[in-house]
Specification:
By secondary structure, the protein is of the alpha+beta class. It contains 2 helices and 5 strands; from the N terminus they run αβββαββ.
Length: 129
């Protein structure tokens, strides 16, 4: 497995633990469609929330907002479009009511492999229906 895949899987695990501590109910993970993958499917406060996880390695947690490449930069408009289609596939496959409200959140995970520490920044409601 490529190193970026390892970082991604570690980031998803960290994000999942973070979300559970924040009161999210985990409904599923790594749901595959022909259009892409839904990283973490959750529910909080009667609203379904699809969490896209983007992870990067850092040497320090100082000045995370000034990084040359930030995790959120890796969520392109084409990736977001595929995510929306994958969500529709999931909702139809799970027979979720068309009236169900949902949103897409982005979990940015910063991992320091040397200290084995991580930080999560949740950007909520980058898209909603």
């Amino acid at each position: 497995m490529a190193e970026h895949n390892d970082v991604g899987k570690i980031g998803e695990s960290i994000a999942k633990a973070f979300l559970m501590k924040q009161g999210f109910s985990i409904l599923g993970t790594n749901y595959l469609t022909r259009y892409g993958e839904l990283d973490i499917i959750t529910k909080k406060d009667t609203r379904m929330r699809f969490i896209e996880v983007k992870s990067i390695k850092v040497r320090s947690f100082d000045n995370l907002d000034k990084l040359g490449v930030r995790p959120e930069d890796n969520l392109t408009s084409s990736k977001l479009a595929k995510l929306k289609v994958s969500i529709e596939v999931y909702l139809n496959h799970q027979n979720v009511s068309h009236e169900t409200k949902y949103q897409i959140d982005l979990a940015c995970v910063y991992i320091n492999p040397e200290t084995r520490e991580a930080k999560v920044k949740l950007i909520e409601n980058i898209h909603s229906e």
